[in-house]
Amino acid sequence: MREYESTLIIQPEISDEGVGTLQERLDGILEGFGAIRLIYDDLGKRRLAYEIQNFQKGRYVMLRFLDEGSNIKAIERALGLEDSIIRFLTVQVDDAVEDVAARRTQAAEEERIRAEKAAERAAREAEEAERQKLEEAERQRAEAEEAEKRAAAGPEATDDAESEAADDEDEATEPVAAEATDAEEVAR
Length: 188
Prior knowledge:
The chain is α+β, with helices and mostly antiparallel strands. It has two domains: 2-98, Ribosomal protein S6/Translation elongation factor EF1B (Alpha-Beta Plaits), CATH 3.30.70.60; 99-160. Helices cover 61% and strands 26% of the residues. It contains four helices and four strands; from the N terminus they run E-H-E-E-H-E-H-H. The protein has a four-stranded antiparallel β-sheet with strand order 2-3-1-4. It is elongated, with a radius of gyration of 31 Å. The termini are far apart. The model has no long low-confidence stretch (mean pLDDT 83).
């Protein structure tokens, strides 16, 4: 038996249920040709390097399987007929897999580890999104309080704040002007 890896790019609009259905169809295709699926890994949506069939993003899926090699053309033909798959590439990973049962066990462990990592990544992304949402809400609240303070102080406070900012700007540029004058004198 030989080990093969197919990388598939699926249309990005496909829902998670649609991807699950596609996974079942892929399993059926492999089983129909006598291949043994080892790993199915959904790598998520990514931006494509160039537009393919008017898509700028695609959902990447990695599929590893064992086969004798004679059915690869037929498997690729079946993949090409799937409407939701916009690109695919199949490569040979291992020329001779001697112990199929051991490789299946190893692949099951790899798939479990990948699933755990994907769940951890999703949890971290959810926490980050929540943290960003809280920071944005806090920033908006602070801006609203500042606007209320300015409105309560009246128009005089706004004019005073603007004149203070202008004074600070003038003070910041004065040393630069003095340094430029000194440089001109040295140049003479």
